[in-house]
Design goal:
The chain is mainly β. The chain has one helix and six strands, in the order ββαββββ. The chain has a four-stranded mixed sheet. A two-stranded antiparallel sheet has the order 3-4.
Length: 110
């Protein structure tokens, strides 16, 4: 079973990365067919960088690789969930997770 890359005109499938131990959402990125295959081959996270238009091996320069423990597709096979063991922070800012900018839920705050 693999993602349905053809559902998206750019062939990029949204991918959520979760710490397998804490269940904290670490990041969201995109995989294409090539990066998906590399994930399977290496058991580490590989993505497609939309800004750089190239394959991206998470942790290749920082050392903060993510070892994949499991891969799960959603019911439509158009979104991917990766559980990983992170070797360091997921975010380029140095934060453990890329999700730290809280959105106020109060209507008076904008």
């Amino acid at each position: 079973m693999k993602p349905d890359f053809e559902k998206y005109s750019d062939g990029l499938v949204p991918t959520i990365v979760v710490d397998t131990n804490t269940k904290q959402v670490l990041m969201m990125a995109y995989v294409n067919q090539e990066s998906f295959n590399r994930c399977l081959e290496t058991k580490q996270t590989w993505f497609w960088s939309r800004s750089r238009q190239e394959l991206w091996h998470k942790g290749a320069t920082s050392g903060n690789v993510q070892t994949i423990v499991s891969m799960v597709l959603d019911c439509d096979q158009d979104a991917l969930l990766l559980e990983v063991v992170p070797a360091g922070p997921a975010c380029h800012t140095g934060a453990v997770s890329c999700f730290f900018n809280e959105v106020p839920m109060n209507e008076s705050e904008e």
